[in-house]
Write a structure and sequence with these properties.
Elements: E1 25-26, E2 31-39, E3 42-47, E4 52-53, E5 55-56, E6 66-72, E7 81-86, E8 91-96, E9 99-103, E10 109-114, E11 117-122, E12 135-141, E13 145-150, E14 153-160, E15 168-177, E16 180-185, E17 191-192, H1 196-202, H2 205-217, H3 225-238
Parallel strand pairs: 5-15
Antiparallel strand pairs: 1-4, 2-3, 3-9, 6-7, 6-10, 7-8, 8-9, 10-11, 11-12, 12-13, 13-16, 14-15, 16-17
């Protein structure tokens, strides 16, 4: 019998969740090693917020904490838990006694169900890429060809005005969305899915003619999430 998951974060569902003013936020600088268990070996930690940097924008998928479910690799699931996805830090956060904690052992999780989406953690989905291009991924289509979305919010400093005459910019930091899509065929390593060429190089020769025709007929745009979902679903169903 699988071990029963028990939420041990006292006060997780109690009290108010106070959101930060995102016009000026505190940027974490390192980790305070004060780990606290959330469920069955998946732990959380506090992160230091001593260094403050003014930032415009929102680092989260959704600023408020909402209910989600954590599933371990043995198939056992937690009860509904208040979660928030901090895209800029690529971390899922929880609340304990008004403290914001982040899951620091995501490799123990099989998947996270959050905001009607499914997320996995794979630090090596794309080989030979920086850490920020791996980590948590949303599963858009699951099948022999799996489509993932990598949510990203890069921190950009506006130092110069955007004109040919030069001049100073706002001297402020901004979160900029840099989302991209990753494909994985038959459990192989993932690859950046950003063009027709990248897609056709991944599939077998026998299916290329039919897929080229589908791409042309449906005017598939490789920077459009709906188009990519349509493309991958067709491939999984027809090829």
């Amino acid at each position: 019998m699988k071990k029963l998951l028990v939420i041990v974060l006292i006060g997780l569902f109690g009290g108010a969740c106070y959101a930060q003013d995102m016009k000026t936020v505190q940027v974490p600088r390192g980790v305070q090693r004060q780990s606290k268990q959330i469920i069955d070996g998946v732990t959380t930690h506090n992160y230091a917020t001593k260094s403050k940097i003014p930032i415009n924008g929102n680092p989260y998928y959704k600023k408020d904490f909402t209910l989600g479910v954590l599933e371990l690799h043995d198939g056992a699931k937690s009860d509904e838990t208040l979660l928030r996805y901090n895209i800029a830090r690529d971390a899922f956060e929880v609340i304990q006694k008004s403290d914001t904690l982040s899951l620091n052992q995501p490799y123990k999780l099989k998947q996270i169900f959050y905001e009607n989406k499914t997320f996995i953690f794979d630090p090596e989905l794309r080989e030979k890429t920086d850490r920020k291009y791996n980590g948590f991924f949303e599963v858009c289509v699951d099948g022999k060809f799996t489509l993932y979305k990598k949510w990203r919010k890069d921190l950009v400093f506006d130092s110069f005005a955007n004109n040919y005459k030069g001049g100073s910019g706002t001297k402020e930091y901004y979160y900029v969305d840099k989302n991209n899509f990753v494909g994985r065929l038959n459990g192989q390593k993932g690859f950046l899915l950003n063009s027709k060429k990248s897609f056709l190089n991944a599939i077998n020769d026998e299916s290329k003619t039919e897929m080229k025709a589908f791409i042309k007929k449906n005017k598939i745009k490789f920077n459009d999430e709906k188009d990519l979902i349509k493309l991958v679903q067709f491939y999984n169903e027809k090829i």
